[in-house]
Amino acid sequence: MFFSSFLSSPSPLTSLLILILCIAGVGFVSTTSSKIGQGYKLISIENSPDGGLIGHLQIKEKNNIYGPDIPHLQLYVKHETEDRLRIHITDTEEERWEVPYNLLQRKAPPSLTQNVVRSRKDLFPLAEAEYSGSELIFSYKNDPFSFSVKRKSNGQTLFNSSSDDSDPYSNLVFKDQYLEISTKLPKNASLYGLGENTQPHGIKIYPNDPYTLYTTDQPAINLNMDLYGSHPMYMDLRNVNGEANAHAVLLLNSNGMDVFYRGDSLTYKVIGGVLDFYFFSGPTPLAVVDQYTSFIGRPAPMPYWSFGFHQCRWGYHNLSVVEDVVEKYNKAKIPLDVIWNDDDHMDGKKDFTLNPVNYPRPNLLAFLEKIHARGMKYIVIVDPGIGVNNTYGVYQRGIANDVFIKYEGKPYLAQVWPGAVNFPDFLNPKTVEWWGDEIRRFHELVPVDGLWIDMNEVSNFCSGLCTIPEGRICPNGTGPGWICCLDCKNITNTRWDDPPYKINASGIQAPVGYKTIATSAVHYNGVREYDAHSIYGFSQSIATHKALQGIKGKRPFILSRSTFVGSGHYAAHWTGDNQGTWHDLRYSISTVLNFGLFGVPMVGADICGFYPAPTEELCNRWIEVGAFYPFSRDHANYYSPRQELYQWESVAESARNALGMRYKLLPYFYTLNYEAHTTGAPIARPLFFSFPHQPELYDVSTQFLVGSSVMVSPVLDEGQTEVKALFPPGTWYNLFNMTQAIVTKELHYLTLDAPLNVVNVHLYQNAIIPMQRGGMISKEARTTPFTLIVTLPSGTTDIVAKGNLFLDDDELPEMKLGNGYSTYIDFHATANNGTVKLWSEVQEGKFALDKGLFIEKVIVLGTNGTDGAFEINVEGEPIEDTSKLKYSTAEQKFIDNLEDEVDKRKSMMMDIHGLELPLGKNFVMSWKM
């Protein structure tokens, strides 16, 4: 939801204020600073009881820059798996804040009391030594202490924390509210991640750009700024002599931090917690994400309907407007699966309520019964702020159960849309129960199909310690709802509200409690907001997921604005408040791709932009991109003109074209959902995921892959009717016109025609893509017969292709095989010795058979035709009567302008139809070329 502040609307006044702050010396953080101290000395190291190492570090020379040093540290190192290494550094004497082990489940290091000296044979040499795992090697130096992580297979140093005299960064610094550690990096490394951040330079982390991680309600229009989520991980992709290797580094810490990337080094400056590093060895980008999500939690399975198209707007003032929107989508023949309400349905903007005038319950229930019968779904927003109102049952029960974050023993008072609010403390088990009960009560009132949890960074329209004003109404309803109307005073008298090191919050070193909960406020068990701030949305996602799953035992759908490491295990994400500009359309691709790395594959941006009004041309181009986001939703602001896709006929045509193809590809998207859930593989991916050995692709941010085989090359600039696209080596087929092919032996730029209603999408060779007929809604589309698109590489004689398909009852919470309600199929094709063979290998075919699903058509691209002699058998039994089977061929046109090669090539598109191959049974089909 739109939150306008002086930071989110860069007016001349804002620019002047920022300039004044910079001149005053409180502006942007410098990437260089004098070194802090002499680091630590390793004074002992030994084997730990669990097979790791435990070391003891002692400060070399104390200083008081950013506070006193912690004199003694415990070092713990463990190869946790063959491809994961953990390095944990904390205070030896006192426990420090860590991301709660019950929220992000993992093994705790040995307790501090277990650090006892063992026999001499357990001791490691102090000077220098190595501790080797299957693929990663930990080595250390003792004075000053530093460590490095190397790859065993090629000897590359992945992380090196030592600081030489010429380096602009310190050795290890560990104070109560300031931790600093750095690593040297090769200049040819390509880094990705460190979000959430709108990156103007594309997907690669750019040297000397600010990367501040602290969850903040700042619109995505703000570049290089801490936004809604905190993901302190990066992937490092290196190409040495044509050989590519990727690894990832996670610093599991929820405190605010600045990360400085200089091109040849990276420095963390963190304002609390511990240093808890995890290294993932890869070596491919896909393997990195597999290993990463194996640790942080596999992405949540999403229901089938969530891959349909969604429509939302803040400003559907009454139910009749929502009904009208649904019918106009239907009339315009634009697919639509889900209709959303922002806070318009609420009574006084209070959670879990209905406006009795504009959304009367009997009428809303009748509407939901109608759209549910059609197969459509309904989702509403929920904000964490609970209105302070003694007649409001949700608030009354919250007070009775003592569920709110406290300040000096009283619920902390803030302001969001309802006015004065208290914030639930999701670290409190009682809050999780109360929240689940409120969701249950609301579901009985309105049978919603999912929840949208917004404003959970957490967002507060006020700052400091506030009280409800006497003698005036707050808010008064006459001005913007985001203007603070409580009586507030700044809190700057604690080291938690005013820490010694100032992270570059909101891009101007704003106080860490600015427009959020005061960081000296207290959670359950005395946890400070200072430490737990960036996990608020994560903890709310967990509680919401538990509640929704408990209501009917169905698979939940949750969309969360604020995210942290592990959020993808529970929720989807959208990129927040963007603008209807060409720049924002371009930025959206990088952010979507980043969240795939973060283990949040179900992600998208507000199509056409949240505010202000997009142009008609921009909306055309945006739906052509947004139709291929994993999460595809049009969403607009209260103050913007209406921008549903049917508002312009040209946009409606683009939507029918692009969304029409998306709905045909739904089985492909849904199978990618299964892959994401089981292996972490992103749904939308950078091109280098499929071509990691091509360094020219490492910073391509204007094209992307859906899965491994579908490439989207959209128009991202105004007034363009062509697009310059980069094609990796191989054969690519135009998805919208499969008689067109591109063949290249090298990376090849090609200028493609792209009239207003056309988006260029290409299929890569060696793939088998399952598709269906499509339709206006996923419930209908998923019952239609299947087509297999087989993409053979052109110009070769010995070829293979493969693909897969996952089908299930998407109402079930688990997405897995073995429950009797799912089917998984591998498809294979080969062509050699003049024969093409296509076959399936089915696991648990009963579900597909019970649904009556079958293949009606096979389209083979890149063959040289057939003599028509088809042989088919199903479960080993030959099909004697093939009289219904028909086929047609069309010669393919090569549009890559390589005339000499084109003349020598002949390639056909073959359409084999009239088939009735049951999906749930193994089949083999062959024919002579």
TrEMBL record:
Any idea where the Glycoside hydrolase family 31 N-terminal domain is?
A: 85-255
Q: Does the keyword Hydrolase apply?
A: yes
Annotated Glycosyl hydrolase family 31 C-terminal domain residues:
680-769
Asked if the record carries the keyword Ubl conjugation, the reply is no
| Source species, domain of life | Eukaryota
- Print the keywords alphabetically: Glycosidase, Hydrolase
Give every Glycoside hydrolase family 31 TIM barrel domain span. 299-672
Which Pfam families would you find in this protein's record? Gal_mutarotas_2, Glyco_hydro_31_2nd, Glyco_hydro_31_3rd
Q: Which InterPro entries match?
A: Gal_mutarotase_sf_dom, GH, Glyco_hydro_31_AS, Glyco_hydro_31_C, Glyco_hydro_31_CS, Glyco_hydro_31_N_dom, Glyco_hydro_31_TIM, Glyco_hydro_b
| Parts of the chain that traverse the membrane | none
What family classification does the UniProt entry report for this protein?
Belongs to the glycosyl hydrolase 31 family.
Q: What is this protein called?
A: NAD(P)H-dependent D-xylose reductase (XR)
Name the species this protein comes from: Datura stramonium (Jimsonweed)
